[in-house]
Design goal:
Layout (H helix, E strand, L loop, with lengths): L6 E5 L4 H12 L3 E6 L2 H13 L4 E5 L5 H15 L4 E4 L15
Parallel strand pairs: 1-2, 1-4, 2-3
Length: 103
């Protein structure tokens, strides 16, 4: 898929796969919007990508909060007028003691 000038939102972009996707896609001239809870990490990645002259925006977002997701979409549409791709790389895990778990 050609990503040049595509607007791509990446949830969970502050580290790991999300960060790598942001680096790769922005290097291919996509306009990336970084979403995540760790604002400081997102800002570091933003600075790195901007230094390389890539189009990037950060919207600190907890994807478990619908209002924050709505805000991220609104800000992205205001900035770019469209959203071409959304990558949900963020996840929420629930852990329990298997002995106390009853389906």
């Amino acid at each position: 898929m050609e990503v040049k000038d595509k607007v791509i939102m990446i949830a969970g972009a502050s580290s790991g796969i999300g960060k790598s996707l942001a680096q790769l896609l922005s290097a291919k001239s996509a306009k990336v919007v970084l979403l995540g809870r760790r604002g400081e990490k997102l800002t570091e990645i933003e600075a790195e990508l901007k230094a390389a002259k890539h189009a990037v925006r950060v919207v600190k977002t907890d994807i478990t909060d619908r209002n924050q997701v709505d805000n991220a979409v609104r800000l992205t549409l205001e900035a770019y007028g469209k959203i071409d791709v959304v990558i949900n790389n963020a996840g929420v895990g629930y852990f329990t003691n298997h002995e106390s778990f009853s389906p």
